[in-house]
Design a protein that fits this description.
The structure is a homohexamer of 197-residue chains. By secondary structure, chain A is mainly alpha-helical. Chain A contains eleven helices and no strands. The first copy, chain A, has a single domain, classed as Orthogonal Bundle (Hypothetical protein af1432).
Chain lengths: 197, 197, 197, 197, 197, 197
């Protein structure tokens, strides 16, 4: 029975490791070079550790390792539900999308701890989950800049929207202000693609 | 302005050519070898031509070339909406999924003809659109058997469900009975994977 | 026996789905990201539908769906013969190349309808087959521009030659003149690469 | 200056995301489908969370989230040093290899926290770092079984050695005994490949 | 001018490095994992060295290093002409195919030495060129066995035909008899696929 | 027994054909498009033939075919040891690295001739092995320029270092001066990336 739990988890992780993020694919990034959901969560987790460390050096109370754990799990429901793009999420309503994801996670993820971390991310009511939100967007922004460098210009739409998203979060919560000095250059690089059409 | 329509269509086709079907990816098929939506529609169209020809030889009135045209377009909305998997489609309701897809197509596909073909497929109220449904499922079944041969055993779930689906359609419409002699062997191969767990 | 026909067709489609076009490969496009013959025929078919629609709106009599069916099949012989590049086609003579392809198709393609569509394309004696010729070249031109954007500069040779080819066909048949307004911008983009060496 | 730290970290993560593990490549796994170092660390982190949860349910004191953070970083030095295979590690001596890795990490990883986590892993003197060692080997074992299923039989050597390695660790530390019920089936699957030559 | 020769050679080598062999592609091997012409010539060259060494140990006069040089060049004309499959070669006639290849090589390969080596291979009138023929077929046989192991069963046709080809050459030239002890096992493995249909 | 030698050699060549060079991977080149060790040796061998021919035309005594044979084998030890990057080679000491490689080759490469060629390369005490050193660096330089064109800017570091390396060797041995006219343009292209940071 414990073995079955591990086997089910391994199937979920396998899906996360072989499924690229839909946003890249729909913008012309070739599947053979498209970032997977697992790779995205990996980068988010590393960035959460570093940004968490930075927040602490500014005197903000946050647990970077807890944030990293949240980051590792934050998109895990996509192993069952798939990576639903923004257009569809808006068309179906953000609440419905999240409800479907959480339900799928509850049914399929064989670990109370993993599930709790995922639900914390969806709820967005802790400092750590907020931090993961930023780390997640920063990871997407950085990857979009890589693809733009490799000639995938349609991706600039994502560079713009994630830069705007990070900027907005930093403006909305005074505790995060100390991340500006680290993030501003990347935000600026992303915003440069907003004017272009 | 006409140029812009072509440019928009080219963007849609590009997305269809670089986006693999989610069903394969979530079952561990590597992105570098995963069938794209465009390739799937291509195979569906070829099969629709051949099965349509067969139906005609049985005296059924159907236009294989019209079916091929429907097949070419039947998943085109996924260029905007993404390829939503069965689990999610069921969780959100098939009607909502189809409504979002048709709306996306109406907004983004710059051709009245293409749009009409897609809507015909969704409505499923012509012999040709029914034929495309079979061709589409047969294409999925054949591709799943290829992946199983290459060692992707999780895909057997799809082999089973598509075989069952084709069988059910053939049972449900007497005009299609004449396709049995062509399809039965593939249906049997797919059904073999239903018992396995 | 019917089953065997389907199996043979499935083998042919498989080859078309896994074989990239030689023109890209020989110009340094990596196999993992090179457009397959099937993907090319797919894009040609979609473009044929749209350009056919446009011709009709100019009062030209043409059946876009018939053109799409031709497009889906036009390179199918390459599943047996391989994708023979221009250099070799010229060295062996265009007639020999076409004869070998048609013979291969006759021997291997298990469908009278598919074969008829392919032969119509080779004969180039209907409005629809001419339309597919344009759609096929436009598809190649558009894909070449994508590769150029991704840094594959050797491909510019193909951008130039297909732009010239489309231009020539439009000049040669007055009925096609109405496509200029849609195609001129792409032709111009392609021609820009003719002067560069 | 803070920006530069982020830029340097992004370069390191990029390398981890594009570099497959050498062990797979040298055993004939194609680069296009070979697991990257980042994907391996991702799977290790998820497994560390779940196994840590299990240990806690057995009354063992361990912080699963801390273990996950260690897992995320444990191979990060390979972004500079490369993934050195067992043969070479043994030839040069395990100490030298670790010294080079730690020195590289100290010079290049722009985060005190990340560095501390990596050093904890190398030292192997906490419950969490021991747990990551198991999770890392389990991740390798599971991935080797996937490759064997896909026909890469040379990989069975790794399935055997990691299964033996996990078994040995479980035998060596009584606190880990409670993981047996979860891990035994995977260990057995791996050991099955030891006898084969 | 010398620089231009190097640039032209680099273009040819680039094509050989990015173009997979058509035989694999048409039998369903995915482009992302298909052996390139360059990789095939590489393996042929290594095998030529080893088999040449073996021949010498049997007292046969042959220069293994000269054979390796021939092997490195033997398919270089395919960078211009493409990799023409057996079906097409037979349809157009082997002589025409070789004439086109040699003419292409003469026009495009900017090195007298490389050209001479290629012509020696085509002429098949030296011990070394005969040895390369065997090495080339052995390389194809070995690669086909790898693909069969990975589940590409259509490739067995090539395993059979190359095994038969090697066997025939060994029978045809008494000097090569000493290679039997090395090659028989591989020949047998290939022949096993001849009976299967 | 002879058969076993061939089987062992085939395993080594397989590893060389599926293992990309670490230098590309660590600089962000995607595995699916990264040059393998075999492809690198192939290009080195072709360049060695051509540069050897050039040296001879300048009256320098050198055997281009012997150089090609050395080139084909020069990195073969990496099939066992892996491709150790410059950073690590320097950290462990060049002598240790070479000793490990030569020992691995002696143990695993089942051919006296291949081994002798490899040892000649490591010793760098013949004109041919020196020529292969240049060809090897030129091959790396040319490939780095290709990747830079495709948007992988981190690779410019390698373009610079190989250009400097070739320049230094040409300066160090008067017999090689005659290669300047062929190589200077490539050296210049590489050096252009030295100033950039």
């Amino acid at each position: 029975m414990n073995y079955m739990k591990l086997e089910r988890l391994a199937k979920i992780v396998e899906a996360l490791k072989t499924t690229p993020r839909t946003g890249w694919l729909l913008r012309g990034v070739y599947p053979a070079i498209a970032e997977t959901i697992a790779a995205h969560m990996y980068e988010s987790a590393v960035l959460a550790l570093m940004l968490g460390e930075e927040l602490r050096s500014c005197g903000i109370e946050v647990d970077p390792q807890h944030a990293a754990a949240v980051a590792i799990v934050h998109d895990a429901a996509e192993a069952i539900v798939g990576d639903i793009v923004k257009y569809t999420a808006e068309a179906m309503g953000k609440e419905l999308k999240e409800r479907i994801e959480v339900e799928a996670a509850r049914k399929e993820i064989p670990s109370v701890l993993l599930l709790k971390l995922l639900e914390e991310y969806v709820a967005q009511n802790t400092m750590e989950s907020e931090l993961v939100k930023i780390a997640e967007m920063l990871s997407t922004l950085i990857q979009s800049l890589r693809y733009i460098q490799h000639g995938f210009s349609s991706v600039s739409e994502i560079a713009c929207s994630t830069a705007q998203g990070i900027d907005k979060i930093l403006n909305g919560d005074i505790r995060l202000a100390c991340l500006r000095k680290t993030l501003q250059r990347y935000i600026d690089m992303g915003l440069r693609y907003c004017s272009k059409k």
